[in-house]
Specification:
Blueprint: H1 30-33, E1 38-43, E2 59-61, E3 66-68, E4 84-88, E5 94-99, E6 107-110, E7 126-131, E8 138-144, E9 155-157, E10 174-179, E11 184-190, E12 193-201, E13 206-210, E14 218-225, E15 230-234, E16 243-248, E17 256-262, E18 264-269, E19 272-279, E20 282-287, E21 290-295, E22 309-312, E23 319-324, E24 337-340, E25 345-347, E26 358-370, E27 376-388, E28 398-401, E29 409-410, E30 428-437, E31 446-455, E32 468-473, H2 474-477
Parallel strand pairs: 3-8
Antiparallel strand pairs: 1-4, 2-3, 5-6, 5-7, 7-8, 9-32, 10-11, 11-12, 12-13, 14-15, 15-16, 16-17, 18-19, 19-20, 20-21, 22-23, 23-24, 24-25, 26-27, 27-28, 28-29, 30-31, 31-32
């Protein structure tokens, strides 16, 4: 919903530095500035510049005579023809704007005579000269229109947020990370010992570390979270390569065996995990919630699939799980994407995915495409990257689907991984929201921003990448305009 630009000033006798927009101990002197005080500053609506331009909030610093938008306009927004809207506290006998250019050819606009003139703010700060109603006082404000220097629709990985994996070990040798509906769990191993780090605030990097009591033979790569519990497979010497499924509500102290066996865990939907089990030569889907076996369709991968991405399809009754790549029953890399709704599997990719590999990283996120007038259109987007092929090569390219895995293409340059990210396979991606805060106090001071967290992975040397990366689309970092 649109909101009008909010005034920075209230009753003059109570206004502090920066009006009501900012806090400072210096008291506003109404006798000094009241006759030339600006009540509000904004721009007229212009969809050729950007959607909702008229709602961009400007702070007014009365003491230093500065007017600025603390939260910048999107990168590329044209600011060479903006129509200002100025409201004074006591009115004015004259208002003039002066544009200063580097070549010295300044231009002055008489706002009092024509309030619809467009003004060029692309050359830097513009001066606004105010003359009081009685003509006895005047003041010049410096107006700064800030524009983002980041490409709004690029996927950026924050170098400053890079850290090592949360662990009790300085150099863990193996790891696997998963999440329940309430927390994220990072399980690491070093020298046959285990560490479990738990966080309910990934953005705040708050972790609690403990030593888990895992079942004997625990397979760390099978560590999987459902809504309210954690699961892991434990090898017990079965000749068919299957392992027993164990369940825990905290991942640390108590693990209980279930009467379920799996050769491979795909992931979870709701309260249960689902996996593949080879029963007398027939591959079946098995669940933590039932002992029933459901034969798998031909071509479904049965090992080394991507980490799963959960999503809700508009026409579906409930949540689904998507995997790409992996190894099929014949031991070949599955060049396809498969979706599972808790009852049945369906191959959703329309064409062979030549790039599909083993143990890819898959994440359900969003991407944007600009329509006319710089209006961004948001798309639910699957991003697939990493993975290792039959020749041992790890791809650094990102592939994307905007229709829930049906059609895939190489992602554009703005969504590709940064050169400084080490190519890995077998990394886990967790998406979690964080509350961000803008510098302007009104009308919006906070909003939710989703981040992708990528844990670990194995390098071409076969060693663990002891890293935790955080990334998001730049546009999501910007304060929403309304």
């Amino acid at each position: 919903m649109k909101k009008s630009a909010t005034a920075c000033l209230g009753a003059l006798a109570t206004i502090m530095l920066f009006g009501s927009c900012n806090s400072n101990e210096e008291i506003y002197d109404d006798t000094k500035y009241s006759s030339t005080a600006v009540y509000s500053f904004a721009f007229s609506e212009d969809k050729k510049v950007m959607e909702h331009l008229d709602t961009v909030f400007f702070s007014i610093d009365l003491v230093n005579a500065r007017i600025f938008n603390a939260d910048s306009l999107p990168m590329g927004a044209p600011v060479n023809k903006l129509v200002p809207k100025v409201v004074m506290v006591e009115g004015a006998s004259a208002i003039q704007f002066t544009v200063h250019r580097a070549n010295g050819s300044d231009t002055t606009y008489n706002y009092t005579a024509n309030t619809t003139d467009s003004i060029d703010f692309s050359h830097g700060p513009v001066d606004m000269r105010i003359v009081s109603l009685d003509g006895l006082s005047e003041r010049t404000y410096s107006i700064h229109v800030n524009v983002h220097t980041l490409k709004a629709d690029s996927l950026t990985w924050d170098r400053e947020a890079l850290r090592t994996l949360p662990s009790a070990f300085n150099v863990p040798t193996r790891q696997h990370t998963t999440a329940t509906a309430h927390a994220t769990y990072c399980l690491t191993e070093a020298g046959g010992n285990y560490s479990l780090a738990v966080s309910q605030d990934l953005f705040g990097d708050e972790w609690t570390t403990s030593t888990p009591s895992l079942p004997a033979g625990a397979i760390i790569d099978s560590f999987t979270g459902a809504d309210n519990a954690l699961y892991i497979l434990a090898a017990d010497g079965a000749t068919d390569g299957s392992a027993a499924l164990w369940r825990s509500t905290d991942g640390a102290a108590t693990w209980q065996p279930l009467d379920v066996r799996m050769n491979h865990i795909y992931g979870s939907l709701g309260e249960h995990v689902y996996g593949a089990y080879c029963s007398d030569g027939t591959w079946c889907t098995v669940s933590s919630g039932t002992s029933a076996l459901m034969p798998l369709p031909a071509g479904v991968p049965v090992a080394e699939t991507s980490c799963p991405a959960r999503f809700t399809f508009p026409l579906a009754e409930g949540e689904q799980m998507l995997v790409v790549g992996g190894v099929d029953a014949d031991g070949k890399i599955a060049k396809s994407a498969w979706a599972f709704d808790g009852d049945s599997w369906a191959r959703v990719s329309r064409y062979s995915l030549s790039w599909a590999a083993r143990r890819m990283t898959l994440v359900s996120f969003v991407s944007y495409q600009l329509k006319s007038n710089l209006i961004p259109q948001e798309f639910p987007t699957m991003l697939a990257f990493g993975g290792i092929d039959d020749k041992g090569a790890i791809s650094q390219k990102v592939y994307m689907s905007r229709d829930y895995g049906m059609n895939w293409s190489e992602a554009p340059a703005n969504l590709q991984l940064a050169d400084y990210l080490t190519p890995v396979y077998g990394a886990q991606a967790i998406v979690a929201d964080a509350t961000l805060h803008g510098r302007a106090i009104r009308p919006i001071d906070q909003w939710e921003c989703p981040f992708i967290y990528v844990f670990g992975g194995t390098t071409t040397a076969g060693t663990l990448s002891n890293t935790l990366w955080r990334g998001t689309i730049n546009r999501l970092l910007f304060k929403p305009l309304q």
